[in-house]
Specification:
Structural class: alpha/beta
Strand order of the largest sheet: 8-9-11-12-13-14-15-16
Helix content: 55-70%
Distance between the termini: 111 Å
Largest sheet: 8 strands, mixed, barrel
Shape: rod-shaped
Length: about 650
């Protein structure tokens, strides 16, 4: 404890509690003993005096009983007040004085039996006080003094020897009682102090347990970086919303699944500390949309966040999502520079889409995922078509893993002809997939293969099949080349160059007979790496074609920076050749003379288109007008014959 004053207050408060706790037995014993003493030895000579004495002690005991009951009804703070101490002390010492007066007032008329009985009772009352009144050393010592000393002194000076001896014994007994009372009081003080220390220790332990419990709860329910709910806490709180909806307390709620676009690049280039700063700043911006505190915010994992709001109106949700998107698109200050990122938001609504919180999270995730890679869309509400598309993608991903092993893949070949002669100069290899009973369009499965990385082994299989086919062509068709589509994922593979060289060597293929078609958008990413690989292959003799020219990243920058061999005019311009498409064709032909590439027009489907393109000087044509894609056997039979005159 801090000082003696605090310890004194503790002793006083606990002493009062101990005194009053023992008061009822003491009052009851006193009443019983006093009543028995008076009515046992009452006679005509002292009847009135003894009855008055008994009435007086009963009155004091009644007052003390009322005071004790008042103490029991008081609250813990009131029980510690000093007036209770003084009231108890007055009542207790007044009782002691009445006991002392019994012998002083009536001893002259005592018979030997009453004299002995009275001395025994007074000694017993004094002895009992040492334990019952041990809560206060002052009362505990003064009580036996008041009870025994006056009568003992009176007896000490009495002429009769046995009474003098009894007086001496009374004083000795009083001294012993004083010593016992002091020891009892010291023991009680020690017990009070020990109890206080144990109580303080228990409180500290309980506080420590509470603190540790709160810390454990925070660790297990709060995201350490952002301070938002983690998955466990969010699911618990969100399930509470579901219960409130089912009990008709709320009309529903909506869940935003938010993914921070470009975050991986920050981690990879600037480090995880920078990434953590971005996540922390992002969470602060997200918290700004919860000013009323009605929403639930969660860091679901990595750069994925959940915002759960009681809003259900689609228009209001759309406005809120757009405000979020604009906020997240503002620059982020990082290491003295501005970083520009964006976020994609998927929205699912309870009960419109589901009533289960885990299902709503899944649906919002599906809606968000459907927008990945799409510009400028950044907000999507879930609908069943999105889920069907995702399930189809998952099905394709799994089926692609075993498609080659099951021999479900094959190549078909579409001829590329000279516009003037109609002779075949090359074939474009096209991949076909027959999965079970269903033919899967390349437009569906190629993007999936690129996204999950299976395009790399698939691409190597296509290259090897193309080289096998070239090796099977008759010597008379040695001038015919095969064109193979190559994706950016393949070109980024570290083993790509070595693999191509190995295939050309193994099948003894002249490099100029292998053409690789790439889209111009391929050069938007990793330009230095792609340029280097493409240039290396060209130096080895492999020909490079730009497919879908004019529809991608930057047509002029591609043909300026790369030594392109062929440019394929996209079919959209050929189909529109009677309108603005012709101007594009003319422009591409004009540039071909400057930059030294040949032009191939694909998607030729009518004789009019073929004649117009030939008349404008397009040297190479490809399309259904000349031939559908052919199976390998049909291609081998056709490769030595002109298709038709134009």
């Amino acid at each position: 404890m801090r000082d003696k004053r605090d310890r004194k207050k503790l002793y006083r408060a606990e002493g009062i509690k101990l005194l009053y706790s023992n008061a009822l037995p003491g009052i009851l014993i006193t009443f019983i003993v006093a009543t028995g003493l008076v009515f046992t030895f009452i006679d005509h000579d002292n009847r009135t005096g003894k009855l008055l004495w008994w009435a007086a002690i009963c009155l004091v005991l009644a007052i003390r009983l009322v005071d004790t009951l008042l103490w029991y009804r008081a609250n813990s703070y009131q029980r510690k007040q000093n007036h209770y101490y003084w009231r108890f002390s007055a009542g207790c010492l007044l009782t002691a004085a009445l006991w002392s007066s019994w012998c002083v007032l009536f001893s002259e008329g005592f018979s030997a039996e009453e004299f002995t009985f009275s001395m025994v009772i007074l000694s017993a009352m004094a002895g009992g006080a040492t334990s019952i009144l041990s809560g206060n050393v002052f009362i505990g010592t003064l009580y036996p003094v008041i009870v025994l000393v006056p009568f003992s002194v009176e007896l000490l000076f009495d002429g009769e020897k046995y009474k003098s001896n009894l007086g001496m014994l009374g004083l000795c007994f009083t001294a012993i009682m004083l010593f016992s009372a002091g020891r009892a009081a010291r023991y009680v003080k020690s017990a009070i102090l020990l109890k206080y220390k144990n109580s303080q220790l228990l409180e500290r332990m309980e506080e420590t347990i509470r603190t540790r419990t709160q810390e454990i709860y925070a660790i297990s329910h709060t995201d350490a970086l952002t301070g938002l709910h983690n998955r466990v806490a969010f699911l618990r709180a969100a399930n509470g919303l579901v219960m409130r909806y089912k009990q008709n307390e709320i009309p529903g709620f909506s869940l935003f699944f938010i993914d921070l676009d470009g975050f991986k690049t920050i981690n990879d280039t600037l480090g995880h500390d920078a990434g953590d700063q971005i996540l922390l700043a992002f969470s602060d911006r997200l918290k700004a949309f919860n000013q009323d505190g009605n929403a639930l915010l969660c860091r679901w994992g990595g750069d994925e966040f959940i915002f759960c709001t009681p809003l259900c109106d689609r228009a209001a949700l759309g406005r809120l999502a757009e405000e979020m998107r604009q906020s997240f698109s503002k620059p982020w200050a990082l290491h003295g520079q501005e970083i520009f990122l964006s976020a994609t938001i998927g929205i699912a609504v309870c009960p419109r889409h589901s009533q289960a919180i885990t299902r709503l999270i899944q649906l919002a995730d599906i809606a968000m995922y459907s927008l990945k890679g799409k510009q400028p869309q950044r907000v999507a509400f879930y609908n069943h078509e999105l889920e069907a598309q995702l399930l189809n993608q998952i099905y394709l991903q799994e089926a692609l893993k075993s498609a080659l092993a099951k021999n479900e893949m094959r190549l078909v070949y579409q001829p590329i002809v000279e516009a003037q002669s109609g002779n075949i100069v090359a074939f474009e290899t096209l991949l076909r997939w027959h999965c079970g009973e269903e033919a899967i369009s390349p437009a569906h499965f190629i993007p999936v293969a690129e996204k999950n990385g299976s395009i790399v082994p698939l691409g190597y299989w296509i290259l090897e099949e193309a080289c096998k086919t070239l090796a099977e062509l008759p010597p008379a068709a040695s001038h015919i080349a095969l064109s193979v589509n190559v994706s950016i994922v393949q070109l980024q593979d570290a083993a790509f160059i070595a693999k191509v060289e190995q295939l050309l060597t193994n099948y003894a293929i002249a490099p100029e007979r292998l053409h690789m078609e790439v889209t111009e958008s391929l050069f938007h990413e990793s330009q230095g790496e792609i340029y280097a690989k493409v240039s290396y292959l060209q130096n080895k003799g492999v020909r490079i074609s730009i497919d879908d020219f004019g529809t991608g990243y930057s047509s002029l920058s591609v043909i300026q920076n790369m030594r392109i061999d062929f440019v394929k005019i996209d079919r959209s311009f050929v189909n529109n050749i009677d309108d603005k498409g012709l101007a594009v064709v003319q422009a591409i032909l004009t540039m071909s003379g400057t930059f030294g590439y040949d032009v191939i027009a694909e998607g030729v489907e009518t004789v009019r288109q073929a004649q117009t393109l030939r008349n404008f000087g397009v040297p190479l044509l490809q399309g259904f007008y000349f031939s559908q894609p052919l199976e390998k056997a049909d291609m081998l039979a056709l490769c030595n014959e002109p298709l038709m005159a134009i």
